[in-house]
TrEMBL record:
It is found in: Secreted, Extracellular space. Its cofactor is Ca(2+). Gene3D superfamilies: Peptidase S8/S53 domain. GO terms for cellular component: extracellular region. The active site is at 286 (charge relay system), 290 (charge relay system), 484 (charge relay system). It is an enzyme of class 3 (hydrolase). Residues 1-18 form the signal peptide. Binds 1 Ca(2+) ion per subunit. It comes from the Eukaryota. Pfam families: Peptidase_S8 (PF00082), Pro-kuma_activ (PF09286). This is tripeptidyl-peptidase II. Residues 210-566 form the Peptidase S53 domain.
């Protein structure tokens, strides 16, 4: 009886504290302060519902990374032998021990969690703010994004019970802040382009001022003939209610691709309650740009627009996670995925950045080329901002994806001044670019020293044109600029290469970087002029070889064909 009374006492005590007794909490993630651009508004309401996610530690990521490099490195005997969905899942699924320990903790706290990824490494659940504060020794508060007025409930640190260490990777959203409207392209006033001679392969003179599919075809030797392989899919991701408009695509093709059917279109996949409104006024500049320069350049390549809704998110990151888990769950994912969204690396926790980056490695191991725009703020981050140290962008710092910067002009083609580039503070230099980065840093000397992390992964990897792209939005012709133009352009080129490879009975390119930093480098046009100013500096200058403005340079389709052995 004494024991029972003792227990009763214990549970009352626990109730009074709102948490189990004797737990040993360890700080798991924290940030030094409120990120630039946000202000604290006050405590979050205790009964407000939080939608939280948990990531479990993956069982054998080092082996997945080894295999990713093995199948992506041209000199390897296993080059192109991409992994199956089951092989990838087996390497990254959390161990049974992790699953048991996390489930026991959830049960003890009366939490009903739902598995949201195929391998069971992500769970989601809802709890009131008061309970979340207790569970994680957190201080969930309301923060306002000054520029947009957007509010987000976040905490500057959280803890987990010691027994979950090594099993629970992270809780989100906690210390990662959202980045509303991250580097969308700038849409300038409608322009009237000169008529162009689409049959000529010489670069039309109008390409000096405006870029069209014909310009890209001429500058990069992109074929105009139709791709033949139906298994070769190109995915364009869309977020924040950016809709891709079919009537605008038709107008665009009618004007700029008179050699193909103007009815050429794309398919749609949706998740998180995503949709693709066809109301003209809801056409998104970003989504239209991305679709017009994939369907309009990757001639004949089946293109899918993946519209990620906002059921869960209050920023891009849940969307980023959901789209990658969505594709990892497909038996035959698209061979190329292009995304023109991103944010400053310092807004994201290291654990979350790592987790997303590892997800790109999984898709890469499956044979998917993952491309992201590098950002539009030069060395100051995804958008131009005041800063004292350079601001790397995410996910460009992740070593398992391909970051695409921007250029402008023809003969010479030079770096676009907004092209984000630099060095990650989260990810070290991967082997495949060690020589390229060392060469640049030695040529750079002491310029900008102390402003960037010389031991970080350098980005971008590659570049394409990114200034004055003509697009049609709600029936209006306009010009846009940004690395948002560059990522879809490269996606089209890689997809056309994949078409040739598949037709020849070979594997698609998959994770591109080990190829472009080795046998692929000579197939790129080295960009050696221009720079990406920011943070009151001239930024990094483009130089011979790799540089953190244009990467290794811009693609030449014909040379790439040779480099891939066709
Ligand atoms: C277009 O270019 C081709 C090849 O250079 C030339 O033969 C043709 O006359 C040009 N057409 C026009 C309308 O300029
Ligand atoms: C610099 O980059 C390295 C490699 O990723 C990292 O370990 C280190 O923490 C970074 N330094 C700073 C000050 O962020």
């Amino acid at each position: 009886m004494v024991a029972t009374r003792g227990l009763f006492f214990v549970s009352l005590f626990a109730l009074a504290l709102g948490k189990p007794m004797g737990r040993n909490m360890k700080v798991h993630e924290s940030r030094e302060g409120i990120p630039d651009g946000f202000s604290l508004r006050g405590a979050a309401l205790p009964d407000q519902t939080l939608k939280l996610r948990l990531a479990l530690v993956q069982s054998n990521f080092p082996e997945l990374e080894r295999k990713l490099m093995d199948v992506s490195t041209p000199s390897s005997a296993n080059y192109g032998k991409h992994l199956s969905k089951a092989e990838v899942q087996q390497l990254v699924a959390p161990t049974q021990e992790s699953v048991n320990i996390v489930n026991a903790w959830l049960k003890e706290n009366d939490i009903d969690a739902k598995t949201i990824s195929a391998t069971g490494d992500w769970l989601s659940f809802e709890v009131p703010v008061s309970k979340a504060n207790d569970l994680f020794d957190a201080d969930f508060s309301v923060y306002t994004h000054d520029a947009s007025g957007m509010e987000a409930v976040r905490t500057l640190s959280y803890s987990i019970p010691a027994e979950l260490q090594g099993h629970l990777d992270l809780v989100h959203p906690t210390v990662t802040f959202p980045n509303p409207k991250s580097h969308l392209p700038v849409f300038s006033a409608p322009i009237k382009p000169e008529a162009q001679n689409l049959t000529s392969r010489a670069v039309p003179s109008s390409c000096k001022s405006t870029i069209t599919p014909a310009c890209l075809q001429a500058i990069y030797n992109i074929p105009t003939t139709k791709a033949t392989e139906s298994s070769n899919k190109l995915a364009v991701t869309g977020f924040i209610e950016q809709f891709a408009n079919k009537a605008d695509l038709k107008t665009f093709l009618t004007k700029y691709r008179t050699d193909i059917s103007s009815s050429t279109t794309f398919t749609l996949q949706t998740l998180d309650g995503g949709s693709n409104s066809q109301t003209g006024s809801q056409a998104g500049v970003e989504a239209n740009l991305d679709i017009q320069y994939t369907v309009g350049v990757a001639t004949g390549v089946p293109t899918v627009f993946i519209s990620v809704g906002e059921d869960f998110q209050d920023g891009d990151l849940e969307g980023f996670l959901d789209v990658v888990n969505f594709l990892l769950d497909e038996d035959t994912p698209p061979y190329v995925m292009t995304t023109s969204y991103g944010q400053n690396e310092n807004t994201i926790s290291r654990n979350l950045a790592n987790n997303l980056c590892n997800a790109y490695a999984q898709l890469g191991a499956r044979g998917v080329s993952i491309l992201f725009a590098s950002g539009d703020g030069g060395v100051s981050g995804s958008q131009s901002a005041s800063c004292s140290k350079f601001v790397p962008t995410f996910p460009s710092g992740c070593p398992f994806m391909t970051s695409v910067g921007a250029t402008q002009g023809v003969s010479p083609e030079t770096a676009a001044s907004f092209s984000s580039g630099g060095f990650s503070n989260y990810f070290g230099i991967p082997d495949y670019q060690a020589d390229a980065v060392a060469g640049y840093l030695s040529a750079l000397g002491s310029t900008n020293s102390g402003k960037y992390n010389a031991s970080g992964r350098g980005f971008p990897d590659i570049a394409t044109q990114g200034v004055n792209f003509e697009v049609v939005v709600d029936g209006q012709l306009g010009g846009v600029e940004g690395t948002s133009c560059s990522s879809p352009t490269l996606a089209s080129i890689i997809s056309l290469l994949n078409d040739r490879l598949i037709a020849a009975g070979k594997s698609p390119l998959g994770f591109l970087n080990p190829f472009i930093y080795s046998t692929g480098a000579s197939a790129l046009n080295d960009i050696t002029s221009g720079s990406n100013p920011g943070c009151n500096t001239n930024g990094f200058p483009a130089k011979a070889g790799w540089d953190p403005v244009t990467g290794l340079g811009t693609p030449d389709f014909n040379k790439l064909l040779t480099a891939v052995g066709l």
